[in-house]
Amino acid sequence: MSTVLRPAHDAKLPVLSQEALGQISTIIAALLLTVLLISFRPFQPVQPELPGGGGDIVNQLGFGMVGAAALCSLLMLTDRRITLALLSPWWLLLFGFLGLSVLNTPVPSDTMRSAAFSIIGIMTVGAVLALPRDADAFSRVLVFAGLAVLGLSYLGLVALPAKAIHQAGEVEWQHAGLWRGVFTHKNIAGPVMANLSFAGIYLWRRGWRTSGGVIYVLAIVFVLNSGSKTAAATVAVATFLVMFPGLFGLRFLTPLLFLASLCLIAVATLGTVFIEPVRQLAQLLPDPTYTGRTSIWAFAGEMIAKRPWTGYGFENFWGTGLVLNSDVYFDQDWDIRGVVHSHDSYLDLALTMGLPALMIAVITFALVPARDYMRVRSCREDVLLADFFMMIIVFTMFNAFLESFFFRRVDPVWMLFALALLGLRLAARFPISSRGAK
């Protein structure tokens, strides 16, 4: 990020111009991140999605302008070395699979719009990382975006309770009373707020005690009231796995614990369907998925086995005739015909892009960040920033076993995940500068 390096052309400018450019860059980054998290349609309860993801002119125009602003900012206000460093070969491979999955649909022009949203979001995340000139500027971005999300969400609880809180009259009546704030659903609100709590920890550790403490407390309270069991169960685990080894000078254990825990959670969730000994054991224990999602996973596994190499195409499985015309059995926990995703990011990626794409995703989302984390310099600013990004990655990868969001347009959970992945990549390659904690 250009939190770490000054653009080369800055040296030719007066000091005042450099400071002005830095302030402008910080403001743009803060606004971009805020829009990514809040969207152009806050306080809109979840609605059935149209095939191809389409039709919302407000989001199409709004995020089109966001993408244009991000691209212009990357070209005009950032160091080219920082921008080029964002181009990971693993990400490029994933984008290649994404393009193939779009072509592997009956009407590629329809699904291309949804894929474009995701690409625009990732490019905007890159701008958010590359624009701030130092750690203090990036902290200001986090404070602005975090307080904007939290402030609007808490305001909504009072001023717009019918929008900010799940209601008994909705389709998912069982969620009545649970907080969702500016987001469409508690399962988005919970993970976003959990990730904002990590931002609070990062700010607190940097010395920004007031803003960091406020963000952390407000975010954790929201997580607990969102009723998102997945988020509540993993936020403390992610914090512990990243911060505890460092207290004893054992940072090298963090990526090892992360990868080991990831394997353990995979066995405890998907293993209850696809590994026979685990499946038999799971029948004697409480449901690890909380809501009986194993029937969905079993169906998804059967369908993946039919098209393991290419998948069914981007956003071309759930909600299509292939699923709607499937047989339904009385002993299933879910009616497969009404499912919008598999409640597992890994299975959905395999369904849409194929098992080879899933393998590349695991490398990109787990193995590469683990390597990058160990490459970060041992300087305080570098370590604090790397810990922040790693907490998001650990939490989100765990959460992905029970929720689906990989490449899901500009889903705020997906955007924060991409922010952490790309941010850790930059932190491993460039030193972090700071003008002092506040």
How would you describe this protein?
The protein has 438 residues and is mainly alpha-helical. It has one domain (8-266, 343-427). 65% of the residues lie in helices and 0% in strands. The protein contains 19 helices and no strands. Helix 11 packs antiparallel against helix 17. Residues 3-13 and 48-54 have low confidence and may be disordered.
Layout of secondary structure:
Blueprint: H1 15-38, H2 57-76, H3 80-85, H4 89-103, H5 108-130, H6 135-159, H7 161-164, H8 186-206, H9 209-226, H10 229-247, H11 253-269, H12 271-274, H13 276-282, H14 294-306, H15 321-324, H16 345-353, H17 355-375, H18 380-399, H19 412-427
Helix pairs in contact: 1-5, 1-6, 2-5, 4-5, 4-17, 5-19, 6-8, 6-9, 8-9, 8-10, 8-18, 10-11, 10-18, 11-17, 14-16, 16-17, 17-18, 17-19, 18-19
